[in-house]
Structure formats: structure tokens, C-alpha cells
Amino acid sequence: MTEVAITPELIAQHGLTPEEYQSILDILGREPTLTELGIFSVMWSEHCSYKCSKRTLKCFPTRGPKVLVGPGENAGVIDLGHGLAVCFKIESHNHPSAIEPYNGAATGVGGILRDIFTMGARPIAMLNPLRFGRITDPHMQWLVGGVIAGIADYGNCVGVPTVAGDIYFQDCYEQNILVNVMCVGLMRKDQLMLARAQGPGNLVVYYGSPTGRDGIHGATFASKEDPHSQQRSAVQVGDPFMGKKIIEATLELIASGAAVGIQDMGAAGLTCSSCEMASRAGTGVEIDLDRVPQRADGMNAYEIMLSESQERMLAVIPREKIDVAREILERWEVGCHILGEVKSDGLLRVKHRGEVVAEIPAVKIADQSPQYSPEARRPAYLDTIPVAPVPYPAPPDWGDALLRLLRCPTIASKRWVYSQYDHMVQTATVVRPGDGDAAVLRIKDTPMHLAVTVDGNSTMCWLDPETGGKMVVAEGARNVVMVGAEPLGLTDCLNFGNPNKPEVFWTFDKCVRGMAEACRALGTPVTGGNVSFYNESKGLAVFPTPIVGVVGKIEPPRRILTPGWKNAGDRIFLIGGAEQHLGGSIFAQLWQPQQAERAGYYDEREPGPVIGPCPTFDLELERALQQFVLEANRRGLINAAHDLSEGGLAVALAECCIKSGREKLEARSGKRSAVEYLGARIDVPNVKCLASWLFSEAPSRALAACEPAHAAELTALAQDFRVPVVALGEVSTDAALLLGDVLDLPVAALLAAHETLPY
Amino acid sequence: MKGKVIVRLKSEVSDPQGMTIQQTVSKLGFEGVRKVRAGKYFEIELDAPDRSAAEKTLHGLCDRILANPIIEDYTFEIE
Amino acid sequence: MKAAVIVFPGSNCDDDCRWALEHVCGVLTEMVWFRNRVPDDVDLIVLPGGFSYGDYLRAGALARFAPAMESVREAAEKGRLVLGICNGFQILVEAQLLPGVLLRNTCLQFLCKDVFLKTVRSDTPFTHGVPDVVRMPIAHGMGNYYIDADGLKALQDNGQIVFQYCDHAGRVTAEANPNGSLDNIAGIVNRAGNVLGMMPHPERAAEDALGCHDGRYLLESAIRHLTRA
Q1: What is the ipTM of this complex?
Q2: A219: pLDDT confidence band, cut at 50, 70 and 90?
Q3: Which alpha helices (DSSP H) does A311-361 contain, by range?
Q4: Global confidence as pTM
Q5: Which of A142, A236, A239, A244 to mutate to probe the B interface, most B CBs <10 Å?
Q6: How far is CA B53 from CA A149, A481, B58, B59, in A?
Q7: CATH of the domain at C193
Q8: Arch. (CATH architecture) of B2-78
């Protein structure tokens, strides 16, 4: 290959600092080739090396008695018992989705699926946390529509149900939308497959789609500020049909025992998969690029190594098993190309057209990446957030206030989204999206159910990164507890601005520390995740947005719990902390009486600025609340449970009414009734600030309904756990939400408001 | 005037639909089908004072809505 | 009796159908790879939902050439039962084992939700004992049934329309039509009555654990028909 001169400009174009280049010279003992420079560049990008975040991430608790695989592999794995394990991971696809929403989101789904099935797990659920700007903006509507269609078309085609997600509309995401994707898989424990190039002499096999000039430098692209500026070739088209075929082929390959290691080619493509597999196993890998199936003509070694074409896999197969592997791969029509073999010399050696174009110690690229402790400085904006709560005059009509909140796109029903996702394929979805605080999936042939959720309220993280970080973890764990599950573990996607800005890095560091403390207190180890920096354009960063995915298990005698009221006469309790002020609440973003020219209210689709301060948060109380609900459920005391989150108590009560709908079936004639709803009669106590009582978004709070006969036991149990409990009222047959003389609304009106489409 | 617009994926961008069709028809015995690329075709009736105004409208339409220049390009004819 | 589920590349409800037939209804079920023939001793063939060949070109358009389809055609001619669900229905119309075509939903979006179906005919092998109104999920982007006026008249005259989208009380209304299907058609049979194609998923509504067991009536009707014969 004609050698290209390695100039300082070329080094800078590859995003490498002079110091990093010096390390490359030290590792190689010579000047790198262009291909080698490209390899170091992608492997040492933030996306692959976590060079800015690694030190901070070390504070996460990652071990636990049930953790089978922690961070560092493609995905985390937790033991479920019954010979089974659950595998899960969350990732971001923010930057590609901002410029090509359909394919950006679709390839994000494809990528996270591959992380799961390469471990030997069948993907059983997808979850999608999304963050958008103001929904009234036509460009934002184009982004929203494209992202949702991209997720839907990929997930629906491969037959993995999309069962949960959350969507926030917040001005800080106007220039940088966030598209995170989480996948959950189920596996037999004995089929766990690690991404390791074990056994010198074993063959390195490529299968899946051919390689084209797709997204060259996509990984460095995802680590640079401002997706709009350049590098536009970094978006690819996903092929869900190939995605489905490689799921089946890979799972069969693993079940056959033919593979000893598998990794997908994701960010940084063939480079990352070969380097990481070799370095994890302490081996070397030699590959010949002439054997790589190619879609484009005349690709050079640099392009082949750095291509990010989708739906490609790399497997390590012992020679004596290659015929078994070939039969499986060819039956699924995904191709079977032997690129080379595992070596004992620890080198990544790449040949092309008869020449060695790269020869690097694999372990040094993958593990000796630079590590930084970026400067951290407390951002000045925090000083502008009021320390004391702002007093709130009452709005003219409490019923009107509640309906506005229910219509607010962040709170309103997401039926318009999840009805586009196949959320029932695999016939395991027992609690569907929108029906519970977390989605619940049955595990066929076992008594177990899995609960899965994603959460991440960035408003609180902006107001107070450390407390907000704790609250994000707490809410994720609480949501699986509220459907009856014991939280098992957590995966996190940390979406922040440019980490080289000390103010951004400070919020990152604080958020992670808060999250880690909460993980420890709540017993939810972190089994992996993803960091997405540079969510920043035109100098404006997104709110600190850590998002967590939590997986929990429900096993008898515990039951599945849902928010909808079950029986008229059931007693309703508010459990957990007391209300606080309205800081950080959506109500405070809508009702801003100080803005006289708007007659007090902002349009619910265009909320006003966030008003602080962040509520206080007590980890000990949170832990007690979750333990109490788990125990009460074990004793069969709870008929309905619902976490209090956006919109506070009033919205939570409304949702329990809305979700109480049931049809009646006449046994003899088989005739069906229209859906009938239950309501609630609530006594309003004498409080200082009614607005806070109704709409405060203070953490560690939930609703629970129980049969009158169980009320005393439930109350006593709460006292044992030192969890405050307040009797609110009871479930009523008349389909209306009645709050003393404050508010009286028919469920039909609540439902209509909640089902309002955002555009 | 009538605009006939073809939007297709850029030549370097992967076209899974085209590839799948090519592979399947080859197996069915259609020999010599080397490559298939799929695209979209639009017929657009225009009210425009002259050809250059129509071209301007079509360019605007393609750049902003019908194609995403990040992965697609387009051609059109005016009749 | 014996059932078979055909697995096309891209099928994704194949295992759900197997589970419903085998685990819920207790029928021996064989999975048949699209390249192979359906064995002669199979009485009920299910073409499952999914995205065969990624739905590229048109839903079902490439799958109809699969080698297994030849044996499906022969089995249909011999009077064995053939059930096409969702993508399976799309393949059956592309293969011209059933008339008509399935277009994109009028809302232009994939739609996954429960719908009510009116059982128009309860005298087919698939609908004995199926209640007048049943609830089942749909999950498709191309379920908008279309046929020309003569074809529709033939369907009506021959009593080939088996299921229509309706409301909870069985009223066939425009509001109850989720995808724009002509005459609210959700499922049709061939003239002989042994080939049923439907967009809704009975296998997703075959157990109370999933919120509804109405789909089981349909599967059990087919099984009763075959075991009695």
C-alpha cells in the first residue's frame, strides 16, 4: 500500500492529541501506518475507550451474588435461578438520529440487539428512552416521527417486542435529541458466550452483511461536538431482515457449541471487534482483508478496518467445528468467511493485498488507552437556582390544572407511540406499555416474571446533579418494585455535553457519584452501560441526562401489581415521603403566575422554564419504601400500586382511575360491555399549600390500594418499616375522581385529556 | 407542468431491499441479475410560470422533504 | 392429528404459533423450514406472522416463491386446513391461494393494539364455537384489505368473509376499522373453506395470562374439525 505521510494535521484530523500520538510511537517503536493511525484513533475515541469517564465510572458498584457478567463485556448478565439468566444493556444513538432520525434510530436498535444475542441470549424486550425538544416545532415533529418509525420498523421486523420507554419534551434537547435503546435477553446459564478470541489456531470467521464505506469514523463522530457540522457519511441504513437472520444464526451457532467467542462489529467495526476479542483473551489475531466480503469497489485497508456497515459479526471457531458452523451460517444465508486465525503472539496483524498493513499489540490498543481526569468546576447557573421554594398562588381552577397536566406531552399517554411498536410478539407481554409502572414479561415454562423499566428525569439532575442522580436510580428501582418485582440490576446511559468543559464534567461526576450511592443503598449493581458525551450544539449542552434501565424479577408468592383500581371500596393509601415544594415539577413549568402576560399558564406543549430548587431526597426512606412494598406484596396485601412521578399525587390518582377500565363479559351470551371505570373519593387534608399537596414531585412516594380487611395490617407493616402512611380515601364505583371540595372530574374527562395527541 | 422525481439511496449507501431482491430473484433462476437498487418515484403536478421556477420548486422539495441528502440523492425531469 | 408451522426467513411469530398449538392446545407441531416440503401427514398448516424477507418489495411477495409453498398449495387442494396469520395472510394472497391484496394501513403507520372482530361465519372449520364478537390483537403495517368490486361481490356471495372489524357490541363501523380494509374485512376463507387468512393474531390471545383467550376458540375449532373427521 502506498504510504501516506503521517503529518501533525493528519493526527489532529484523527482526533488524537500530540501526547496520544507519542504513546502510539512508544507502543509501536516506529511511525504508524495510516491504517494503524485509524485503528488507534477509533479505539482511543471516547466512545470506545471511555478515556474521560473511566475513572468516574469506577465508583459504580458492579458486583453482587447474582451478577454473572459485569461491565466490560458486550452486556451484563444476572442469574435468575431455574438455570436461566437475564442479559441487558442500554446504549445511545443520539448523534446519527439527530441528522437521519429514521436510520439513526433503526441502526441503534440493531446495534443493541447484537450486544445481547452475541452473549447467547435471545432478545425478549426492547425499551426506548427518548428526549426531544418542543413538540410544536415542525422540525422536531419530523425528528419524532422518524425516530419512532425507525425503532418500530427495526424492532417489529426482528420480532422483539418494544415493551416500555419514556419520552420527555424539554427545550434543552432542541439541538440535541437523545435516542437511547435498551435490550433485554434471556438465556440458559450454560450457554453464556463471551467475546474472546480464545485458542491459538482457531479460525476467525466473518458473517452477516458485506462491508461498504459506511460511517467511516462513526465512532470518532459520536465523540465530537455538533453532529450538524460535518462528517455526514456517518449514518448507515439498517437491514432488519439481515438482523433477524443473524440473531437466529448466532443463537444456533452458540447452541451447537461450534463457537468459542463472538462479537458484533459495531462502532469501529472490524477494528474494535478483533482488538477487543484478542485483548480480552490475551491472544493475537491475524486477519486477511482480501477475504472480507465487500459491497463497494476498491476499498483500501483503512476503509475496511474502520467501516461501520451494519449487521456484521465476528466469531472464533475451532478448526474441527468449522463445518458445523458453515452449515448453520449458510442455511441462514448470512455467509461464512474465514478471515484468519487466533495467534499466541498477542498481536493484531492485518494483511491486505499480500502486505502487512497493521501490526499492533492488541492488549495495548484496547487496554492502554489514555485516561484523563478532566477538570471539574461547579457551573455558575447552579447559583441562580433558588435555595428556598418559591411561593405559589393557587390557580383559579384545580380541575383545569389537573387536565392541563394530563394533556402535557411529557405526562400524557404515549399510546400514539407504543401502538406503532409491536409490543406483543413472543407472547410474553403480561403488563403492556402504559398499563404499569414497568412492563412485565412472563418467562415461559417457569413461575417467574421479569419487570423492566427505563427512567431518567433530567430536570432534577439539572437542578442538583448529585441528588438528581440518586433520584434517577431510585425511580428506576421503585418502578419495578411497584409492579411487584425485586430489582436485580441496572444498566445506565449517561448523556452529557462536552466533557472537556469543566462545568459539564462537574455535573457528570456528581451525577455518577449520586447514582452510585443510590445503587449501593438499593442493592442494584450496575452491570454495564454507555457514556454519550458531546450532546451539545452551538455551545448549548443538554441537561445532565443519566438514564437507567432496571430489571427485576417477580416470583410467587409475590404477585404482579398494576396501578389501575381493582375493586370499589378498596382503601387508598399514600405511602412514603411527604409532599414538598413544587421545585422541579411540571406544574411549576406550566403555572407561572409571575408571568402576568400569559395569564398565568404556559401552553402545556410549550412549558416555561424549570423552577427550582430540587426536592430533598432520603435514600434510607427510599430503601424502606421499596422493602415495605415488596413485603406487603409478598403477604398479598396490595391490590393496586403506583409510583408518584411527573405531575405528583393528582396525576397519579388520575392514572389509577384511567387504568381501572375493564370490560364485562356475560358468561352465557358472550356479550361484551363497553369498558367500565372505577373512580376514587379522596379526603383532602388541611394543608398549607394545596398546589404542593396535589402536584409536588418529591421523591420516594407511591399510592397503594388494598381491601378494607387488609388496611390495618398494611398500616402496621408500614410502621414496622418506618414508612409514613396516610389514608387518602377509597375506590368508588362512580367513575369520577373526587378530591373533597377541591376537584370533581369524571374519568371520561381525565381519559380524554390523557389521550391528547401532542401534534 | 409535471415533475417526475426519482429518489434513491446514494451509491455508497447500503440498500438492503435491493440486495434481498437481487439474491431472491437469482435463486429463482433469473440469470444475469447482477445488482438491484430500489428507490422512490414521485409524480408532481406543478403550477409554475416557467421551467426554471419549476426546477427551483422541485429542488426545494427534494432537498427539504423528499430526500435526505445525508443518505439519498435525487434526479428529476420536467414535462 | 399433526400441525406444522412454516418458518420463512424473517418469520417471527413462528414460535408463538408453536407455543399456542402445542402448549395451549396440546397438538403435536412440527416446524417446517421454508426450503422443505410440508410432510404429507400434516393436517393443519400455519403460515405465521412476521416479516418474511423483511417485507422487502411487498409483504409476502418474495416468500410466495419459497419451496414450501408448493406443498402448501397441494395440501390446500387436497382439502387440508391452511391458516395464514398476518404475514401468513399476506403470503397467501400473494400466492393467490386467497383473493385480494393487503395494502398499507390508511394511517400509514404500523399499528399494534387489540381489536374486536365480528365472526361473520361460524360454519367454517376454523370458526365452530367462536363467539359472535371476539377480541384479538393486530400488529401490522400492511393490513388494509382490498379487492375490486367484482371480487368483493364474489366474496360476499360465496360467504367467504369470516371476520370483520367491529366495536365491542359487534357493530361493524368505520370507527372500528383500524386499517382502512374494504368492508372492514379482517379475515377471509377460500371457496372451499379450508384456507383461512386473517390479519389479527389468534395465537396472541390464546391464554388468560395474555389478557384474553378468544384466539383459542379458533385454534380449537380447527383441531376439533380435524380430530372428528
Answers
A1: 0.97
A2: very low
A3: 322-331
A4: 0.94
A5: A239
A6: 34, 62, 9, 10
A7: 3.40.50.880
A8: 2-Layer Sandwich (3.30)
